[in-house]
Amino acid sequence: MSALPEIVHIVLDLAEAGIPTLPLRQGKVPFGNCRTCVQNACGGRPNMKHGGPCWCPAPCHGWAAATTDPDVLTSRPWLRAWRHAVAVAYHPGGAGLTVVDLDDEAAMEWAHHALPGTRTVTTRRGQHWIYQGTVRSVNAVRPGVDIKSTMAYVRWLGHGTGTIRALPDIVRELAVEKPSVVRPVAQVLTASAPAGGGQCPHRTPTYLDRGIAMAEQAISEARSAVHATVYRTFLAVLSTHGRCGCLTDAHIGRLFTAAQAKGESPRYCTDAWHNALTTLGL
After folding, report:
1. What is the pLDDT of residues 171-209, one digit of tens each?
2. CA 42, 45, 51, 57 torsion: positive or negative?
3. CA spacing 20 to 30 A to 247: which of 17, 18, 30, 114?
4. DSSP helix/strand/coil, 60
5. pLDDT at 71 > cutoff 60
6. Alpha carbon of 27 to those of 23, 24, 238: distances in Å?
7. Where are the alpha helices (DSSP H) in the chain?
8. Which residues are paired to 136 by β-bridges?
């Protein structure tokens, strides 16, 4: 093991503790999908050995690539990624954990009054409070407070201090999907369509319009797991229409409006869109 980069020794120690990890590139984002998996061409077939949603041996598909398998972590494609990585991330849900990400002093003050003490890790702007148990990941549940657990990654900043406590009910309640009672006013679009450059497969504008309409319908008809449905729908739209340049800001606005009508915040829509772009390597 002496020939391995230092970062690999760290992730192997984490793997031994049951914490699935993945490399982060410049900008502290996951590596983009490889040529085989770009635009979800691999079909996202389940593959438990490699930790991700397909058979690709590379660290593809963002948070879903996180793994505890030492053979994968030290394989040639992963070693190439580790040598260019700027940081290590881990999938808290995959380790049975939830991270309450506190971004500022006000958020930390709220946590000290509202949450039971647990293991804490100091970040550049605040703290991570780590609990045993999993919930869905939700951003901006309160000002300066994000919940990171399933379908999310967190930068590894060390083991922290304190004893990990059971996930409190207040965090579970904050993560519960709340149905929208009143259709919200459309927000200003904060994401842009990806640049074109690929070959356009759309013979007529009707093909694209039908695809956007189907995506709007999928979001609108979601009765549960709205958070995940929105992300999967964004991913599907970008997989089909993300490279040829036909997708416009107006199309994205329609998707965002449909998501906000189901109670999603503009910030989540923007985050989900950018996460989908990163996952597809766009």
Report:
1. 999 998 654 443 444 444 455 555 555 555 665 667 777
2. negative
3. 30
4. coil
5. yes
6. 12, 8, 22
7. 6-16, 70-73, 76-84, 105-114, 169-175, 205-220, 226-241, 249-261, 266-279
8. 150
